[in-house]
Amino acid sequence: MDKIFLKNVLKLSSGTSLAHIITIVISPVLTRLYSADDFGELQLFQSLLIVASLLTTGCYHYMIIQPELKDDALALMKGVWFISISSSLLLLVTGLMLKVFTPWLNSASLTLIILFPLTLVLNNLILICDYWFLRLKCYKTLSFSKITRSSSTASTQIGLFYSSLQPGLIVGLVLGRLFAVLYYLKSFGKNLIKTFGNIKTQKVFNQLKKYKAQPIQVLPSSILSSGSTELIVFLIAALFGDISLGFYALAYRVLSVPSAFLGTSVGEVFYQKANELIKKKMAVNTLLYKTWLGLASVSLIPSILLFLYGEKILSIIFGAEWITAGTVAELLAPLIFVNFISAPTGKLLMALGEQKVMPLLSLCMIISRVSGLMIGYFSSGFLMGILLMVVFHIASLFLYNIVLVFKVRKYQMQLTDT
Fold it and tell me: Which of 15, 258, 372, 417 has a CB 3.0–4.6 Å from the CB of 389, allowing a cystine?
């Protein structure tokens, strides 16, 4: 990795690291306050939120980084903002109507029916602002946003356990996102907010039309890609119950720490750098391979430790009742290692203009994960399902990266020809 790339990664990952240190430090407290059922409910809420965010932004937020002119980027940003808020309001009205007039949601909590659209708006605003400040290379702002969200989420989740405002974990999640949005709005400054408001509607439509490939090509791929992760959450809940989902959720939360510390930051800076190189018609293969090598070297030792001693580590930190989560962590460790290397560079296909192949690759991932879990369910149960899911998903990630390397080589050949 070149010095500028590494410097930007360190700027962003420092804040990300602190944010997730807060999450990990507070987790042993939360596991002693809340049950596995509570963590399972939180995981379901988060999974629905991830999928709904993709649907209600149309994946346009990824493109905020691409326009040459600031006004064009602001127009695109305004368009995504409008789509997101309109979709969330529609979801809220639909949920309330179903609650009142049909039996479908009679058993659903009115609090959750109201909280979900609100959280969706906040989550989408964070995504939009993330890519705006990434475009500006404001890595300190991105870092402080993550710290604000993590610290406010953790503190409110603890405080809400002792209050009558439940479900505490979910309400804390909502409040954490609210504080992050408020921080971003403050960071925009009055002049930029005024400029944003003056963007004409026609300009907004022009930018949405220009990047219409996002909802047509990238959205299906993103839904399938997220589905390969989030559908597992829904399946575990349906097949094995909320307690098993709670164990899986905690294990995944712990194992995603390396990705949260560094992988996300590398991915955001990598995507910005790759777009910059491609605009200048420069090679990207060195950037790709050095990024893979650097990520592998960072995550190898933590992954081996969790693979060998996951049960002991999690039962000591979170309590003896979470030993099953430790077993799940041991099984998931190889997948998290491979995914940690692969995920940050996945958007390179978008930067190369090769979005068309992404839905098929994402479909392979979702089929692999679902197949492994289902085979385990019909044979030996929950832990076997996790094991087979890991094996099949690793195979699909290797396929994804083989295709990525092929597309990079194709791009390099085009540079040579010109």
Answer: 372
User: Is residue 56 located within the same domain as residue 182?
Assistant: yes
DSSP states of 9-34: HHHHHHHHHHHHHHHHHHHHHHHHHS
| Cβ partners under 8 Å of residue 218, min gap 6 | 59, 62, 350, 355, 358
Q: Check whether residue 66 and residue 172 sit in a common domain.
A: yes
Residue in this structure with the two tokens 């190189």, named with its chain if needed: 277
Model confidence, pTM: 0.69
Q: Does residue 29 lie within any of the structural domains?
A: no
By percentage, how much of the chain surpasses pLDDT 90? Answer: 16
Which range marks the domain in which residue 111 is found?
A: 34-209
Distance in Å from the first CA to the final CA of the chain: 26
State which of 165, 188, 209 marks the end of a domain.
209
Find the angle CA(143)-CA(145)-CA(345) to the nearest 5 degrees: 55
Give how far Cα 156 sits from Cα of 31, 148, 151, 167, 172, Å: 15, 12, 9, 12, 5
